[in-house]
Q: What sequence folds into this?
């Protein structure tokens, strides 16, 4: 069996140490995704209707749809793997929205990568706020009603996904080693990527603010 020469081993160890050092230096970093004044760092899908996403009085408003607003960051390359995400959310009657993670920008269509954390109190879809859509759903009764602000927390560590609404846990799910994504959702599996906010249809009226993410090791 061939083994690396001493100089090569040293180079490999150095590269590995630098990689781990960089990864751990990012851990604990807290990033505000929304400045309360503009959509800086966010990119709407090209199919999003005009004025679907607006900032009014420090609030990121979604009015109408269908489309998605992706967080791309200041350099257009935002990416997260393990994290603890929090946002304040408010829905209005008939709203159907969602928070995606481990996804990637698309010009149009439903995100093909990542998971959706459902935001829906009174829309006709029976899968309600607090659920991990088509994976670990909250059925019929939303974890928060319309017309009030609530905290949505999403924590991902390895294959473990946890969701809370106003500090009440609604999802505690670990992706199994033999995971088969839901039919038609091949990209619904743990990986890495960014966040997106969904405007599901023309009746969507939802508000977001205080979007913050902490990187985890």
A:
């Amino acid at each position: 069996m061939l083994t690396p020469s001493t100089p090569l081993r040293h180079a490999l160890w150095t590269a590995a140490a630098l990689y781990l050092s960089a990864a751990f230096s990012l851990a604990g970093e807290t990033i505000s995704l929304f400045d309360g004044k503009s959509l800086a760092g966010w990119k709407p899908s090209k199919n999003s209707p005009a004025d679907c996403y607006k900032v009014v009085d420090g609030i990121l408003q979604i009015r109408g749809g269908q489309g998605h607003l992706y967080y791309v960051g200041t350099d257009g390359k935002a990416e997260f793997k393990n994290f603890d995400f929090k946002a304040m959310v408010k829905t209005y009657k008939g709203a159907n929205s969602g928070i995606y993670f481990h996804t990637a920008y698309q010009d149009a269509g439903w995100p093909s990568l990542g998971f959706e954390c459902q935001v829906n109190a009174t829309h006709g879809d029976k899968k309600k706020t607090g659920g991990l859509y088509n994976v670990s759903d909250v059925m019929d009764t939303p974890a928060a009603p319309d017309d009030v602000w609530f905290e949505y927390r999403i924590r991902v560590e390895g294959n473990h996904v946890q969701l809370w609404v106003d500090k009440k846990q609604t999802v505690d799910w670990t992706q199994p080693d033999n995971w088969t994504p839901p039919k038609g959702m091949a990209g619904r599996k743990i990986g890495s990527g960014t966040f997106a906010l969904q405007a599901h249809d023309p009746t969507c009226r939802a508000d977001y603010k205080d979007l913050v993410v902490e990187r985890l090791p």
User: Anything to note?
Assistant: The longest strand covers residues 205-215. The chain has a mean pLDDT of 92.
